[in-house]
Amino acid sequence: MARILIIEDEDLVRKALEFRLKKDGHQVTPCMDGRQGILTLETQTFDLIITDLMLPYNNGLEVVNRSKEIHKETPVIVLSNIGLEHVVMDAFNLGADDYMTKPFSPNELSVRVKRLIK
Amino acid sequence: MLFRFRYLLLCFFVASAAMVFAQQSYVDEAAEMIESSLNSTEILIRVCTVLLILFTVFFIGFFITLMIARSTHRYDEQYEKNIKEKFELLLTGVIFNDDAEMQTDEWKASRKRVVKHFKKRYLHKRINKKYLREHIILLHKNFIGSAADVLRNLYIELKLDRQAIKELNSPDWGIQANAVKELAQLNITKATEKIKNRTQHENQILRLEAQVASIRLDKKDPFSFLDKNRNYLTEWHQVNLAHIIDQINRDLLPDFSRWFVSPNPTVVEFCIKMTLQYDQFASIPALSQLLYHKNQHVVGEAAKALGEFGVTEAQSDMLYVYRDAITPVKLQLLKAIGKCGNNEILPFLIQQLLQNDINIAMEAANSLKKLGEEGIAILEKQTLSNLYGVGDICKHVLDERI
After folding, report:
1. DSSP three-state, residue B325
2. What are the residues of chain B with a beta carbon less than 8 Å away from any beta carbon of chain A?
């Protein structure tokens, strides 16, 4: 069982991901914006962070940056509906470990989570 | 809608109650008392008293209405929250399972039971169906694979598509546009013909949604709406169409030169852009013909495409149409010549470089540079020119730092 932080502003998508990851046996902490996400990862430790890119207050790239400053080893998956090369490159340059473009398959996410937690 | 109905009902009850009370005797006595007091006072005081009573009644009525409206709104909000939570549970429970798990008889039976329960318990209300449709659409936009398939099947199984198809007949274009978008998102092909009927609608947004949906849903002739399109295709409209075309299978793309003869110049412009975007080299002869089109924007767009394709044979046609072209099109022609021209065009470019128009001179200089060594040699020679601005333009274009 891994501790996973999900930062996603779309209520329904966040709840759906939470449901799916809990079903896979993980302990999930949901956050609805970048600011809350950064505050959570500053006070708690996680085995994996899943963040959306377009978030209120602090965007996903800021979350990746802060996460890598605090817990360098914690893998981060970025979810986004922007598949532009420079955006993906920015995320990877900041230290993101994986990038998934929306719409995505929940089964695929589940497999990627398992791979990164290993 | 529900709120308005309740509100009207409450107003009706309040009015009825007021009428019943008005018939009672103590109200009559009070009225007599007020009347007698009014009779015994001066006119100004009488008017003030009447106004005071009227305002008091009005404010009490207003306050009651406000309270009723607030409580009804609060009830509706709470109802919406509760029902949405239930739908979230249904959807997440139904779609987020492993593929293998979803094949088991136990899972299928359990899903059937849950869906039946929801259908019976919640989906008799139109508003609930609307909430569920919103949820399904939102999730369908975010997920692909088996999850998206399950959502689509659930949507059809709960007959939510019927409601969306019915909404296509709404007099409100906004409702129609949302229904079109929804049906396209969930790939409900049976609505294709109805949607295609809206591709020439007078409302721009509905027209765009219907055209986008037509590209997604119509498997036989998804671009047939371009045949009869008489409306101006704005840049925004073209961007949206291009975005959806980018998502479909390349093998399904038509030969866009089919619409080069369209009476609508914006359709021709759009099709030239698509020809270039998808490297439809077979359209080059038709593109060259478009240099003689009566619409200057089409000429400019055709020149741009020919330049990008590097069609040197089009150089003489470009020269021919250059003289009568408007300035922005002249600039596009010069740019295209720089990309597809050869050394035969050098004297013409020198002539343009020496023009009084700074934009034309600049574009001619850029094209000379693109033509290679001979063009660059001419530019270097012209840096010493005494003509006003020519030397500076040449130096600017030759400066590698810029």
Report:
1. coil
2. 88, 91-93, 95-99, 135, 138-148
pLDDT, tens digit, 9 for 90 and up, residues B72-93? 999 999 998 898 888 888 888 7
How many angstroms separate the CA atoms of B350 and B375, rounded? 9
Position of tokens 């359990």?
B110
Does pLDDT of B399 surpass 90? no
Which residues in chain A have their CB less than 8 angstroms from residue B142's CB? 10, 13, 16, 102-104
Q: What is the mean pLDDT of residues B131-152?
A: 90
Task: Express each pLDDT in A6-30 by its tens digit.
Answer: 999 998 899 889 988 998 899 999 9
Strand order in the sheet with A27-31: A27-31, A3-7, A48-52, A76-80, A98-101
Q: What is the separation of C-alpha B130 from the centre of its chain, rounded to a whole number of angstroms?
A: 21
Cross-chain residue pair B142–A15, CB shorter than 8 Å? no
Q: Where are the alpha helices (DSSP H) in B96-121?
A: 99-102, 105-121
Q: Alpha carbon of A45 to those of A49, A73, B284: distances in Å? A: 10, 11, 61
> In chain A, which residues have their Cβ closer than 8 Å to the Cβ of B137?
none
Kindly give, in sequence order, each residue whose CB lies less than 8 Å from that of residue B313, ignoring residues fewer than 6 positions away: B288
Separation CA A92–CA A78 (nearest Å): 9
pLDDT for the residue numbered B385: 79
Token pair of B45, please? 């005081």
The CA distance from A54 to B117, in Å, is 37
End-to-end Cα separation, chain A, in angstroms = 11
* pLDDT tens sequence across B280-296: 999 999 999 999 999 99
- Residues 6 or more apart from B388 whose CB is under 8 A from it? none
Instruction: Please state, in angstroms and rounded to a whole number, the distance separating the CA atoms of residues B256 and B71.
Output: 58
pTM for the complete prediction? 0.76
To which residue do tokens 């109802």 refer? B79
d(CA A4, CA A40): 11
Question: What is the predicted pLDDT for the residue at B325?
Answer: 94
Question: Is the CB of B145 less than 8 angstroms away from the CB of A23?
Answer: no
The DSSP secondary-structure symbol of B356 reads S
CA B114 to CA B108: how far, in whole Å?
A: 10
CA distance B7 to B5: 5
Amino acid symbol at B84: K
Look at residues A50, A16, A103, A102 and name the one whose alpha carbon lies nearest to residue B96. A16
8 A C-beta contact, residue A18 and residue A32: no
**For residue B160, is pLDDT > 70?**
yes
ipTM of this predicted structure:
0.87
Q: Can you give the pLDDT at residue B123?
A: 84
- Cα–Cα distance between B97 and B77 in angstroms, integer? 31
- Kindly list the residues from chain B whose CB atom is less than 8 angstroms away from the CB atom of residue A19: 92-93, 96
CB contact under 8 A, A105 and B97: no
For residue B65, what are its two tokens? Answer: 């209405």
